[in-house]
Amino acid sequence: MTKNDSKRNKPDDNLSPDHDVSNNELARMISNQGKTTQGQIDQLGKDLRDELKQGLGEIKQELNDVRANLNRIKLDVHDNTDAIARAKLANDLIISGVPFTTGEDLYGCYRSWCAVLGYTVNAVPAVDIRRLTRQPLRDGNNCLILLQFAITNQRNDFFGRYLGSRSLTLRQAGFQSDGRVFVNENLTPAARRIKAKAIDLKKEGKLSNVYSRSGVVHVKTAESDETFPIKAEQELLEFRR
Whole-angstrom Cα distance, residue 186 to residue 191? Predict the structure, then answer.
């Protein structure tokens, strides 16, 4: 065998078992690295999703807090506005159930009712009294009468005496009728709407009593001795259940 033949018959180093093991190991390393990289990518994706979810949750909570604050501010503004409106009516009372008559003497009627409530002639509270209408009236029309007292304490005293007796009638003021005369607070438009809806609930049996105190409508249920002040119409919804 010649020297050249010996070289030709020498095993190829690239086909050695040791080199085959290295290739397999390299393949495993590449595979493991791929798995590790994929795991890192998956973990990174999970971390990003978790952070995004947490961030969205925090933003949602902040929005809820802002919404709640706005609602509180809205309620505060409503309460303040309503309180101002009630203050303007603090000296007023409304009389109902008195039919109009041509040439009527409303102040004379008022003095007669004051006598029934225990006032002496010289102690009758000073008031401005008039019908609440701008339209011409015909005999028999039941139009509300507005009493505007000069002093708030006198208004409160008159109303307290009425509530203590509830005994005013038309006959006491010279009418040929024993029909009752009613005295109520002069409510704001918003409070009147609330009271009207509350009275409807009372007719449905949902409420046992409806009244106003210091211009605020209060309601009571048959199941409880507690009274509830109602400052917004939506607050009546819970009594419809």
Answer: 9
